[in-house]
Amino acid sequence: MSDEVRVEVHPGRETVVEFDPDLTFECVDSCTWCCHHGVLMYDREYFELGKRANLNEATTQFRGQDFIKREEKDHDNCAEDGQACHFLQEDGLCELHAEHDWKPARCSVYPLSVRREDGEIRVDIRKSAGEHCEGMNVGDRKVIDNLDAFLPEYLWELENPDSEREL
Ligand code: SF4
Ligand code: SF4
User: Fold this and answer.
1) 68 lines ligand 1 (CB under 6 A)
2) Which helix (H) or strand (E) holds 59?
3) N or C: which end of the chain has fewer CB within 10 A?
């Protein structure tokens, strides 16, 4: 019998957990590292974003896929090259989250990675998170007990939910 850890995240939506089940996570607001990048939009999110922002200003295409832009910022919450996600505010918060209580799936998923293999959704920790995410093993909120907050249900409906694709 397989000793893989399986969790039902939403009714009928199961994932295989490949990270340490004892991992805890609490996002550190002052970190902002994962908001220094361009964010891949899944198709249905592109239209959701369009209800909340100007798509011409906020997005770009790369290899046939839509991304939220990475751009020059006039504040310090950015990468060494002075750029960050279009929606990252000076206070380190996400404009989409602050004003619309919404954010793209890939922003919810971080610091996890998602991939489909043999028809199953598998979640692990993103390699970059081990090096850069300050929220790992902070606090006592176990990731495995809160996977529904990281993994929107529609990830299970996507042919390719791979969250490693980057701008
Ligand atoms: S959309 Fe918001 S949460 Fe996602 S990377 Fe941009 S600022 Fe961060
Ligand atoms: S890298 Fe981790 S701690 Fe930093 S903002 Fe992103 S999720 Fe939060």
Assistant:
1) yes
2) strand 59-62
3) N
> Which atom belonging to ligand 2 lies closest to the Cα atom of 31?
4
**pTM across the whole model:** 0.91
Tens digit of pLDDT for each residue in 119-156? 999 999 999 998 999 999 998 999 999 999 999 999 99
- Give bridge partners of residue 16 from the DSSP assignment: 6, 122
Q: Is the CB of 96 under 6 A from ligand 1?
A: yes
The position carrying tokens 């891949």 is: 40
DSSP-H helix ranges across the chain? 43-50, 55-58, 95-100, 105-109, 127-132, 147-150
User: Do 34 and 107 form a contact (C-beta atoms < 8 A)?
Assistant: yes
> What average pLDDT does the structure give for the chain?
93
